[in-house]
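Run log, item B.
One chain of 275 residues. Sequence copied directly from the ordering sheet:
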Amino acid sequence: DVLPKSLAKHVLRQRIYSCSLDFFCADKMYPVRSGPSLKDDVQVLLKFWSMMLSDKKYIKTQIVGDMESIVGDAGPVHPFPADVRSVSSEFARTPTGSHPPGGLANTWTNVVPLGPSTGTLNKRSVSRNQRFANNHDNLVKDYSRKRWLILSLLSVEVDMAMIWLSPLELDNREAIMLQVGKEAAKQMDDAGKWRDDVRTRTQEKQWREYARHAWDISPTLAVFLPSWLNCSQALVNEVSRLVRSSPTKVCNIPQALDYFLSEDMLEKDSPELPH
């Protein structure tokens, strides 16, 4: 009743993406349940994976509609922050003291129009429209990268759950269909194809970009990314570079030490070791 419906959808998408990525800020956890309970978990995972896959067709159209309905004919508004992101501020953990005047950056409240309604089209409003278009593109790209990360990580989680559920029947499609149902079996095939494409078609440049993007979301996520997507040395190298460039951001994570130290660094007494 307080927020416009379009803005509420935008906030909900933020929260879903944030919570999904937050789940993977830790080592792999193998299932502790079995039988019907584990089967239900697998079906929920597959349904969520399928919904995240289909979200691609809604990201651009809904964000355009959301922003247009929020801005509407309100005239000049406060510009979106230059670094518009689709993750809530509590997950991105903006450093203390770095907030711009007027409040927190990178939160959904920054897209609420604050200016008066003038209804005039002048140079200032044209400039505003350009900022609107640029920030919309940044937001769509940000959601798209996060969606790729979530789908890739979820496909690994689905694979682990299915191995635990039916370790001897993974190649028997009929047995799988009996276990989880026809629709879930098709979703599992899609998740498996996505996982194979990630391993075989993702280029080194893309791995480096995804590592940097994960670091921007949360350094913790970046540290655990190679253990989930164990298929690229380029990813490991980029995470190692990020950890060594800002070790204090992950000094509370024991697993980060594997990316900070290497045998070569110890042998050569690297200048980075005083950290």
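Observations after the first pass:
- The chain has a mean pLDDT of 74.
- DSSP finds twelve helices and no strands in the chain.
Flagged for discussion on Thursday.
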